[in-house]
Description:
Blueprint: E1 2-8, H1 14-25, E2 32-38, H2 49-57, H3 72-77, E3 80-83, H4 86-95, E4 103-105, H5 128-152
Parallel strand pairs: 1-2, 1-3, 3-4
Amino acid sequence: MKRVLFVCTGNTCRSPMAEALFRALVKERNDYSVASAGIAAAPGMAASKHTALLLKERGLDLSSFQSRMLDQAMLEAATHVFTMSAHHRAAIEEEFPSHVDKLYLVSEFVADDTLRGRDVSDPFGQSRAAYEETLRALEKILPSLLAYIDQTWKNGEE
């Protein structure tokens, strides 16, 4: 089982968006588990209004979503951890150094030179247009993550 974890700051915008979009990519597969968390999340928060609305327009329901604070147990369970920014990755490396081998910047594998290696912009508190921009970036990025995982996965690897 491949256990993918998406991480952002508050776990109400980018990482729930990535979680829902990636879950849709692998919905016909039973070899993936997908989750999200935040490095500074207030547990139990709903996804942001624009995140929930944009995903609902794509047929993805976040009505029962609740934010979670990243912890050691989540990192231990995950096989792949994708952060929305270099800052998130650095914070996890510092606090949880034993998990650095499964940490990636979400945009690390995308073919698009304008996105590869860049942070996914944080739309928090901004207009719907900012959320749409983040969503479009994730829609371009996530298929490359799926391809990367499928191409590099070794059965039974932890």
